[in-house]
Structure formats: structure tokens, C-alpha cells
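For consistency, the fold was encoded as C-alpha cells, which produced the following:
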Amino acid sequence: MSEAAGEPILQTEGLTKEFMGFVAVNDVGLTVKRGTIHALIGPNGAGKTTCFNLLTKFHKPTSGRIVFKGADITDKTPSQIALIGMVRSFQISSVFPHLTVLENVRVGLQQRLGISMHFWKSEKTLDRLNDEAMHCLGQVGLAEFADRTAVSLPYGRKRALEIATTLGMNPELMLLDEPTQGMGHEDVDRVTQLIKKVSAGRTVLMVEHNMKVVASIADTITVLQRGSVIASGTYAEVSANPQVMDAYLGTTTTEGLGAH
């Protein structure tokens, strides 16, 4: 962990988003510390996805500020924030199902290096990309699948591929949107351990419904309800918060705080 570990890498101030009078995100103040895994949770309709879309610049806030590494990025584009080290996973490789696993990771490398349209003109450049892509695949346990098409991978390994592609962008802050959604227990466990592994040396912010996953790897949890932050702290702290328990009443055991 770096000397700067524990210092804020991402902060929001008064982050608000309205859709035709409906307030989806209301005055959210979020602080994500460098070198941690931070989970954003809440019952359905709490505003998690909208908040994530604001952070990753898919929506423009109605008001408020977003600060990354001390710089105001409120008006930046998704590609601009990716180039300065803040990358959202599960938005990249899944759109290239008929490329090979290696080629999918290379897309992330090409974007980072600015050679996306002419990489094939230099054999040396291509070799360099392949070596780095294989390194990313090795980190997520997919090196042996390098020549397979992405569409042929099992669901859990597709998610691993998406993480590998994100690693190709060399993110300081990796944002994971529902990384275990739709998975069976075996895949959930595999991807959970993978997230823990790739978090070494970087920061992870994740939206996640599975509270077993959150409890096992998140250092800090921020809970949203009706667009507002109602609690933030460790799993033990937020799970004991009466307002949080009330917010989760009526959810299923797989989503509720009782799922240990």
C-alpha cells in the first residue's frame, strides 16, 4: 500500500441529480479512501445506480461537485476520467463477444496508449500489447483462455475478463457495478476473491447487492436510501444502525443485511 494510502482519492460534495422534479440522488457526500475497497449499498430504488452513473460521468449532476485526486472532475467525460485513472468495469469488454479473450484485453491497452486504430502497423507494438495483455489475464486466472472467443466463456469468467480489461487501463480507482449479479455461489466466491486480489495497490468502489460479498471484502460501506446517505462505516457499524436495518426491512434474505 502506498504512502498516500488512507487519504481521500474520490470525494463528492452535495451531489444531487433530479429527473423532471424527481430527486434520485440527494446531497450525497461520499469519501473514498485510497487503497481501500468501498461498497455502495442500499435497497432497490435507493439511488445507487444513478450515483454510480454520476461518478462515472454517464449522467451530469444537477448540482454538487466530484473531486478525484484533488481535482474537480464534475465536467469531465468518461474517457477523460479513464485517462487519469478512474475506470468503470463491466462497460468495456462485454461489447466485443466475438473477439478473443486476448483481443478484448488489448482494447483497454490500446485506449490507454492511444493507438486504438493503428496498432497492427507495428509488429513491435503488437508484441508489447500482447505481453501486457497476457500479464493482465494472468492476474485474473485467464491466461489459458487467451485464444478463446469471449462469447464462449462461462458467465463468471466473462466477469473476470471484464476485470482484466479494466486492469489494462491501469486504473488507480476501479469502479465495479454489481460484479456478482446473476452468479451462482461458486462464481460469486471466485469473483469475490478476484476483486480482493486485484485491489492490491489500487482503490475499488463497488455497487453490490450481495451482502455476504460486501461483508467479506469491503473496508467501508456507504448506505443509500431514497437517494440520501443514511450511514457510512464498517460492516459491523452499518449493520447495527437502526436506520439501515429499517431501510432493509422487506428485502429478501439474499439482499438483506441478514445474509452473512
Observations:
- Residues 93-168 form one domain.
